[in-house]
Amino acid sequence: MKSIFKKYFILIWLVFVAIYHLVVFLLFNQFAKDVFEKASFWTIYGCMMFAFLVWFITGLLERNTKFGGISPILTFIYPYIFIIFLMTTIMLFFVKHILLVFIIIPFGIISAIFIILIIFAMMNREWIKKNPQKVLEVLNVEDLENYFEDVASKCDESCKNVVYDLATLCDGLTSIKGSDKLNELEKRLFEYASFIKKNAMQAEEINIYNNVDKFKKLLQEREALIASLNE
Questions:
Q1: Which among 106, 96, 97, 122 has a CA at the least distance from the CA of 48?
Q2: Which of 16, 22, 39, 55 is most enclosed, with most CB atoms within 10 A?
Q3: Residue 83, Cα to own-chain centre: how many angstroms?
Q4: How many CA atoms lie within 13 A of 78 on its CB side?
């Protein structure tokens, strides 16, 4: 779904902008042509166009993070567009009487908050780059064996054996449609697999043995749960 949206982003953006212009200008041209002479109308219009432009530029430039495939900045863009759209739409009903200051100040405050959120979003991108172990890299138990073999082939020598042992331990695991509890258990397995990778790559020998023990216990819990589901 995300890839389709990304592929047709420009077309989707153009459709939204075209619909906005069609509705606004047709309505006012039909019922209140005199508003086109008001500075307040064009200020309100400019605020909305600014929001559309920010969406367009961000949508074109931002790339999904390598880990997790998310777009942190766009996450904040959509609420911003909605708030500006709601604000400007309400203001259009009072466009003949509203003062410019009551348009510019709310818009400035909302945009300032948005800029702060953007800064946090950019910091979040950096956090994801520096902490890939926090993001799930494995989504199926079948992938665990290859995942650990790949880690073992790249990690520090001090951790190779323990990681290869985990790859052997995960040989033959298959996904089973079970309960929410099973899904949650497997999610925790994937999280610990990421922790173990981080430990192995950074030669954290104490931490890796601790996480490996927890991983093995979770595997045992999974086997017990599957056995009970099959009864």
A1: 106
A2: 55
A3: 20
A4: 4
Contact 200, 163 (CB under 8 A): yes
Asked if residue 138 lies in contact with residue 144, where contact means CB atoms within 8 angstroms, the answer is: yes
Nearest CA-CA partner of 227 in 189, 188, 187, 176: 176
Q: Are 213 and 180 in contact (CB under 8 A)?
A: no
Long-range contacts from 19-27, C-beta under 8 angstroms, 24+ separation: 20/48, 20/52, 24/92
Structure tokens at 135: 């993001």
Digit-coded pLDDT (tens) for 190-231: 888 888 988 888 888 888 988 899 899 999 988 888 888 776
Under the phi-then-psi rule, with left for phi > 0, alpha for psi from -120 to 50, and beta for the rest, what region is 172? left
Phi, psi (deg, nearest 5) at residue 204: -90, 80
Helices (H), 132-204: 144-154, 157-169, 180-201
- Asked if 190 and 139 touch (Cβ cutoff 8 Å), the reply is yes
How confident is the model over 19-51, as pLDDT tens digits?
A: 999 999 998 888 888 889 899 999 999 999 999
What amino acid occupies position 109? I
Predicted structure pTM score: 0.53
Please classify residue 76 by burial: count the beta carbons closer than 10 Å to its beta carbon, then call 0-12 exposed, 13-18 middle and 19+ buried: buried
Residue 120 token pair: 């946090």
